[in-house]
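in:
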């Protein structure tokens, strides 16, 4: 199986071109709608996708067309996407979309071919779009390499419970770290203090009551580190 390295990519101001408006294409378009302009080319669209385009999302554009393998390259050239998602039920069209994306220097996510199916491995611009769990600003990505979408879903549900409150902890620990640095606390002591905060069950529980409670408990933990 090809080995891939998880990376995060900023799509702000970029365009994602999706070929296919069915269940898979709809899910992919929904995934990128908050971060990029999304253009979906398909002869028909799933209800979820139509609702997304007609709703609050102004970033999703639906183009009713059925490009064949010879025409997808023109679409890639016309839209100039940062990422092409090949999500049709036609392997030839998906393969052509992949080739056109790579020729254009774009990233490509081909949904009908998993990592396990690629004996030669993936190219550097062929990417997997992982399942994600978020508690802003914390984001966890996970993938089974296409081997088991059911497992990815199950793991996502477990991780959602595990990281509950992580966003608040990230904000708090980031603020504390900056304050300790401004106070001139030496790096080793600063790192120890923040480690104690993020590993403190008391701070985690206090944050569930509110930011003020979390801050008070964290201050107690830090004071203990700095005065010993």
């Amino acid at each position: 199986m090809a080995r891939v390295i998880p990376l995060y990519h900023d799509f702000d101001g970029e365009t994602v071109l999706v070929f296919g408006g069915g269940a898979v294409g709809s899910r992919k378009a929904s995934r990128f709608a908050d971060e990029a302009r999304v253009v979906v080319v398909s002869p028909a669209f799933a209800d979820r996708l139509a609702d997304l385009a007609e709703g609050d999302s102004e970033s999703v554009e639906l183009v009713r067309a059925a490009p064949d393998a010879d025409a997808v390259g023109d679409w890639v050239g016309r839209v100039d996407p940062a990422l092409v998602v090949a999500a049709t039920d036609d392997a030839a069209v998906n393969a052509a979309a992949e080739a056109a994306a790579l020729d254009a220097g774009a990233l490509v996510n081909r949904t009908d071919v998993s990592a396990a199916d690629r004996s030669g491995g993936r190219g550097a611009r062929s990417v997997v779009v992982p399942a994600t769990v978020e508690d802003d600003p914390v984001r966890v990505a996970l993938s089974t390499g296409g081997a088991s979408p059911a497992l990815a879903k199950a793991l996502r549900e477990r991780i959602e419970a595990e990281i509950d409150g992580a966003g608040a902890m990230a904000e708090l620990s980031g603020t504390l770290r900056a304050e300790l640095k401004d106070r001139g606390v030496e790096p080793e002591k600063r790192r120890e203090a923040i480690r104690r905060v993020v590993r403190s069950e008391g701070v985690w529980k206090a944050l569930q009551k509110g930011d003020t409670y979390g801050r008070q408990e964290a201050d107690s933990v830090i004071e203990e580190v700095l005065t010993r």
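note: Strands lie at 15-19, 37-42, 60-64, 83-86, 107-110, 131-135, 138-142.
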